[in-house]
Each structure stands twice: as C-alpha cells, then as structure tokens.
Design goal:
Helix content: 25-40%
Number of strands: 12
CATH architecture of the largest domain: 3-Layer(aba) Sandwich
CATH class of the largest domain: Alpha Beta
Order of helices and strands: EEEEHHEHHHEHEHHEEHHHHHHEHEHE
Distance between the termini: 26 Å
Shape: globular
Number of helices: 16
CATH topology of the largest domain: Rossmann fold
CATH superfamily of the largest domain: Alpha/Beta hydrolase fold, catalytic domain
Strand order of the largest sheet: 1-2-3-5-4-6-7-10-11-12
Strand content: 5-15%
Length: about 500
C-alpha cells in the first residue's frame, strides 16, 4: 500500500498491519482457469529498462473469475531465462507487494542479486491486476472519503463508515475497468495460476514479498498441489486475520522503541538527550489526545494531530542512515511538546488521507482488512493498548475499510492441512519477522530465518545472506536449520 511522500512506493512496515460471504468465486470449481488457445508470444524487451536477456509477453485473464467468458484484463509478463538451460529446473514467479506493486520493476531491481538463482531457473515477473488498477483508476478514486481519526464511540464510527461508503460508491461508479470489485487476493491467486499455465509449468516456485504474502496464502489454499517451493520475504499473515497481525506487531515495535530511547540516552545529538525520552513521548500522545495539536501542511492544508495520529504515523522503527530518522523524530517530539507539530504534519496528515482514498483501499478491503464493526474495533483497541502503551490503538488501515460496500471476497481462514511443501521465510527481527514466522509455522517443516537488523523485503534490498538462503532452498529444496539468523549487512 502506498503512503505519502515519506513512504511512497513500498511504504513503511507498519503500514501492513495493519480487514462474509465468498462471492467472487461463486460457481467456480477450485481448479478452474482461463481458457487460452495459444501460449503467449515472448519478445526481447531489454531495451525498455530491463537487464540484458529480458523477454516480455502478456496474457489476458477474466476481470471476474466467476465469469470467465466476461470482460478481460491484460497482465504484462517478463522473464529472464535460465543461464544454464541444460540444468534448468523450472520457473520462479515473483509475487509483488503493495498491493499495487509491479513485479516487473521488482525483477529489474533484483536481477543482479539473483544471478545464482537464475542459473537454474527462469525468473518470471508480472504486473498484477492491482497494478493495472493503480495505473488506470479514475482520479476521483484517490479523493479521500475522510481524514482518518480514531472513533471514540459508535456514533463516530458510523459517521466514518458512512463517509467512506459514499467515497467507495463514487469510485465504483467512476470505474470503467470493472476491477473495483475484483482485486481481492483470491482473484490475484487465480491470475498467478494463469501465469503458471501460460508458462507451461506443472508446478511453480514462488518468491512473495510484503503484501504478496496475502496472494501467496490464497494460492496455497486454492492450488496447493501446484506449489513446488514458496519463499516468503517480509510477508503479512492474512490467514490469521488482520487484527491478529496488528497485535503481533506491537511487541516488536515496543522493543525497537526501547532501542531508540537507549540510543537517545547515549547520544548527545538526540534532541531528547538527558531526558526520559519514553516518558516524554507518552506524555505528548496523552496530551494530544486531550488537546489536539493544530498544524498546517504545505501539501495537505490545515489539520490536527491527536495522540492517535502520532502513535500511528509518528515513529519509524528503521533509524535510517546515521540514525537520521531517529534524530528527526526526536526533534519533532521536542518541538511538538511546545505546540509545534510541523515535524509530523506532512506524514501524519498525508497518511490519514491516503489511507482513506477509496481507490487505494479497493485493492485490500476485499481481503477482510477492515473491522467488522465498532465492537471489534473496541476489543482490538483494548488489547493493543494493553500490549503497547506507546503505540496501541485502532489500526489506520482497518479504519479505512469502514464502509466497504461489497461482501468480503477473501476472508481469513485456514490453509489446507495437507499437500503443501515446507516454506522458507525471511523477516527482519526489527519488524516483519513475527508476521512471516507466524505464516510459515502453519506449514509443517517450514523455517523462517531472522535478519538481525531493520529493513523490509531483504531480497529486494540485496541482502546477501537472505538471498543465499533463498537460492539454496529454491534450487535444492533444502531448508536452513530452525533458528538461523542472518547478521545485519
């Protein structure tokens, strides 16, 4: 999910935790796929910004998989053929995050670091339907239905849901692609299987990252027999449900915040040095909930920062180069104590709006990302505040899905008990390891490797140790020892 300019593109890790009838697949047999009379035509496309040897093609899939004879959407494909074709094992399909990420861009970015893997595999990427939507959605779909806030009662929650319902309805009416109602990860998983069929592979290996784990989970549920191997890098575990993921992330964030306060106590350049930085932060968010801080953003205009805005959008766990992000955070806290919230204004107000844009949310609400109602919000909020005094509260992404007008197409539910091979996961112990490990532990024999440092999606960041584990697993189906850790690079 994209965020404002500080988090544009892949977004912050916290942006993931952060939602019943199965309607999209009505009438479809589990193994159904789009009929194609011919295989895709591959052409050289290295001159389009891709590495040498890249080939491109396209396939068409149904907009609505429940109506395979209906309107179609085109999906662009790219591949880097195996460099040792005589030793070729098969294809590895990249499953991008976002949602809305472009897998072809991921392949261009990662190609050099996946040279060893490419010896034995065709590396294949595609542009998911969510990316097609992102590039073609009506401009009105990015008009926020509200500026998100934390409802303090049933009345406020209903008002937020009503505002979002109006925005969703306006976006849906403006949509000319037909995709608005069909971007759930079950639909994406069926697209993935159409790619498999187009490649002529009986089984595929996968590299899924970030939100791509939701599609990977859907694929594992629909097509377990078609998975040769599954590598998950910094993926969310939608199978367990979004509220559980939000709660699972909070203890990790608390530990990282303790790293920050310890660093600040030892660093004279920190604006809160010599003070109890944690106590200062908690006092700030408590006071802001009572008396919101008025701010003006050059991009988003006037607004107010409540404690909820600061808890949701204030702190970033990755300290950045030379601790630049933590230095900026401490300075912003120090200024906000005096009533100047400018250090948080752009990021907080921008995220409160972008996470209420119906066009962005249409890519994710169908995966049961929203609260089922105010009672569930209250329950999860109480649990969150108990777990995390510094960051507990309602999840902004779940609030954005309030008022979603359609049945949830891809509800959280268990994976098959049998038929799946062991998976390999990798995750940052500073962030997404807890999510990824909670996913892999559901599949017998699976292992998740911890990366002992900040970051998100290690193979796209060129981290050598995780890439080596992925290469060994995908090539030989050999997993590392349980408890393996990669040092920070």
């Amino acid at each position: 999910m994209t965020t404002t300019k500080q988090g544009r593109g892949r977004g912050r890790v916290r942006g993931l935790v952060i939602g019943v009838t199965v309607a999209a697949l009505a009438g479809m047999a589990p193994g159904a796929s789009a009929a194609r009379d011919e295989q895709p035509t591959w052409r050289d496309c290295a001159g389009q910004g891709g590495p040498a040897g890249m080939e491109c093609a396209a396939i068409e899939v149904p907009v609505d998989w429940a109506e395979p004879g209906g309107p179609k959407v085109g999906l662009d494909l790219a591949r880097l053929p195996a460099t040792e074709p005589a030793q070729r094992i098969g294809s590895v399909l990249g499953v991008p995050g976002g949602p809305g990420g472009n897998g072809i861009d991921d392949l261009k970015r990662a190609a050099t670091d996946l040279t060893e893997l490419r010896r034995r595999f065709d590396l294949v990427a595609y542009k998911p339907r969510t990316t097609v939507w992102r590039d073609q959605m009506p401009p009105s779909c990015m008009q926020p239905g509200a500026s998100l806030f934390e409802p303090q009662g049933q009345k406020q929650y209903k008002a937020l849901a009503a505002a979002m319902a109006r925005a969703f309805d306006a976006c849906r009416r403006a949509d000319r692609t037909g995709l608005f109602a069909h971007m759930d990860s079950l639909s994406v998983a069926r697209d993935m299987d159409a790619v498999r069929e187009a490649l002529g592979e009986e089984r595929l290996s996968f590299m899924a990252n970030s939100y791509g784990g939701v599609a990977a989970g859907a694929y594992a549920r629909l097509f377990p027999q078609r998975i040769r191997a599954m590598y998950l890098d910094g993926t969310i575990n939608q199978v367990d449900g979004w509220p559980e993921q939000a709660l699972r992330a909070l203890p990790v964030l608390e530990r990282v915040f303790t790293r920050f306060t310890t660093w600040c106590a030892d660093t004279p350049a920190c604006a809160l040095h010599g003070q109890d930085a944690g106590a200062v932060w908690r006092e700030l968010i408590r006071d802001a909930d009572r008396r919101p801080i008025p701010v003006t953003s050059s991009e988003f205009g006037e607004g107010e920062l409540t404690g909820w805005h600061l808890r949701s959008f204030g702190f970033i766990g990755d300290p950045g180069p030379n601790h630049s992000r933590w230095l900026a955070f401490a300075e912003a806290v120090a200024k906000a104590r005096g009533g100047d919230g400018s250090g948080f204004a752009d990021f907080a107000l921008g995220n409160a709006r972008i996470w209420a844009a119906p066009g962005a949310l249409a890519m994710t609400c169908g995966d049961e990302r929203g609260y089922r109602g105010y009672a569930q919000l209250q329950k999860v909020r109480r649990q969150a505040r108990k777990i995390s005094p510094n960051f507990g509260g309602a999840s902004f992404d779940a609030l954005g899905c309030a008022g979603w007008p359609l049945p949830v197409a891809n509800p959280s539910r268990p994976l098959p008990a049998r038929g799946l091979p062991p998976f390999l996961g990798v995750g940052s112990t500073w962030g997404d390891y807890a999510w990824t490990e909670s996913f892999t532990r559901m599949i017998p024999g699976s292992v998740t490797v911890g990366y002992d440092g900040p970051g998100h999606v290690m193979y796209l960041s060129g981290k050598k140790c995780p890439v080596q584990h992925a290469t060994t697993y995908l090539t030989s189906l050999r997993l590392p020892k349980a408890g393996s850790i990669c040092p920070a690079e």
